[in-house]
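Record type: ASSEMBLY
Status: queued
Input:
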Amino acid sequence: MHNFVFHNPTKILFGQGTIKTIGPETRAWGKRALLVYGRSSLKQSGLYEQILASLRTAGLEVAEHGDVRANPLVAHARQGIDTARTQHVEVIVAAGGGSVIDTAKAIAAGVPAEHDVWKFFTGKKSLKTVLPVTTVLTLAGSGSEMNSGMVLTNEATGEKFGFGHRLLHPKTSILDPQTTCTVPPDQTAFGAIDAISHLLEFYLTTADPDTSVQDRLMEGLIENSMAACDRCLQDPLDYHGRANLMWTACLALNGLTAAGLGRVGFPMHLIEHSLSALYDVPHGAGMAVILLGWLRAQQTALGKRIASLGRRLFALGEADPQLATEQTIARIADWLASVNAPLTLNDLGIPAADIPRIADNTRGLARVWRLADSTPERVAAILRHCLA
Amino acid sequence: MHNFVFHNPTKILFGQGTIKTIGPETRAWGKRALLVYGRSSLKQSGLYEQILASLRTAGLEVAEHGDVRANPLVAHARQGIDTARTQHVEVIVAAGGGSVIDTAKAIAAGVPAEHDVWKFFTGKKSLKTVLPVTTVLTLAGSGSEMNSGMVLTNEATGEKFGFGHRLLHPKTSILDPQTTCTVPPDQTAFGAIDAISHLLEFYLTTADPDTSVQDRLMEGLIENSMAACDRCLQDPLDYHGRANLMWTACLALNGLTAAGLGRVGFPMHLIEHSLSALYDVPHGAGMAVILLGWLRAQQTALGKRIASLGRRLFALGEADPQLATEQTIARIADWLASVNAPLTLNDLGIPAADIPRIADNTRGLARVWRLADSTPERVAAILRHCLA
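Status: finished
Output:
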């Protein structure tokens, strides 16, 4: 086990009826709030009114920054920064999924900065101070509600970059599984796949051979992601299925699973970010395709590890290592197919001829994330495994 | 899954070489520190000098409160409170295992209080404010380094009581597995058993039937407790075995495993506390005996749950439920025997004739902990299962 620091001060309020606490939880951090949200679901579900009422009852003045889209844009975050400055906002409230929370974090980081917020993402500036962020999560998957990361897309440069800093932990996050009961099947599955992809990145990229504590945690969370997703697709109103998926996705990327693994990379996310930047595919959909291709490409190099995972997840028994590896990948592909995820670039509407362009797009983030192994040539080779 | 609040702000610095950070981590909370430690091991190992040097280099004035014993006494904590007040101490530094950390927490709670510290334990006073606590952990097991609980013994009344409050989370805990390489085999095993007993209390006392996230976490941690303990007993200098045991025991009782389980009790700890209060047996030794008796006593009522655990832990296959339950208890007993833990009251030197006296001693804590089911009659029945 490698040395590590684990420090996650985010307060989680989990369960039915917790939405009404967003007012007092936010009021603890300031009097003037900016409410950040997405396009339509928050208002359709009635949550918008509930959240606003709670904030106002707690004595908060509320400015708004709506219309956050999936694969959120830095240009839109910049508008939020302007609004926050004009309104002298002291605290940012995110109500939505990962895109909304990441936009809120970018606003929280950008308001006190004397430079453009994108410079954090490109590594040109370091983060010194942020506004406090509270969140109401309405989509399980990203884990942003309890972690220190954010991902934005720069349309002008065609870059989708991620950035993390300990100051970006939300102060309080409210997780009411009930709010996710209206999430449609495809987005439910994409959220579960997102959680699984976080866990697989850690599980398969650690170079530490002695991580049984983390391995059991990750295996359990992958198993739960699949099982809970199945429950939610079978019965979208299954509260406990929604609860299991929501808490699993949160724990998958809150720092706990990676603590002690040493340096881990996000080589799969690297490639998916380019798919989202260039084609605006949903993140979870892109991850389904990339993780299958990546597993196939690493079948030999990581065979032992993939087989270990399969033996735990699918009780593969004492099959020989190569067979166990193949079976594990096949079982993951079967599960992805069963939740109607795309399995190939073709399923995403991306032609094979675009592979060089996608591979080239990964250069910038590979440099920022220091993924020296992810050369455009290797990325292209993995993408060719996404054609089958 | 039940509603829950999860908020654990303790900062963990884990790994070799982290001891030297105790100075700056403590200095962040004050200038005058009280260093709390045990009887001899800290000085024998050289850690005492290292910690003192780090504290002084960081500019701290250090008063001392040594000589904390296993099953620590409230009378001794009171002396620490007096010292802290006299020396105008601003921050408490614990260097040791659970007994030392719990004593430090009691001092931290007692210094600002205008009443005797024991009143927190008996539920007669509520906690309003505490001094900050930092810790250097030297024994894996209690989990006190990352939780909000403390347990002390009142010799005058023959009571061993536990108390928890969110203010009691240490600010920073330093976990260097290397410091535990000199822990003797019996104490190593007792620590692992302590961690397992925390997990089993949660696993077996939750009334929530839908907790697959927590179940996979707990099963993984129980498996790791056993496996890591085995490694440490085979080779006391196995750093990664020590690391796995240390991090596992910490995660077993840091709030994560119980979050979402609803109300869980500590009916096994209740009984063990009486053994420790009356006979001063090591906590882990007492827990080994009580958990076996408790499992046997609950064999019918909790059979399905015990069998589920066994299927996960020991790959028992598709045996019939009753057989799986018996096999699970037998496998746990075998493991306890393999690490030379006591298995019966007789092994602890406690005669069967004392059962009524022990059962009677549990009354007070059962009332404070609101364990209505743990009547002296039922406790006596469980204790009779500890004779075989």
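Annotation: Chain B has a mean pLDDT of 96.
Annotation: The beta strands of chain B are 4-6, 11-14, 32-37, 61-65, 91-96, 133-137, 149-154, 159-164, 172-175.
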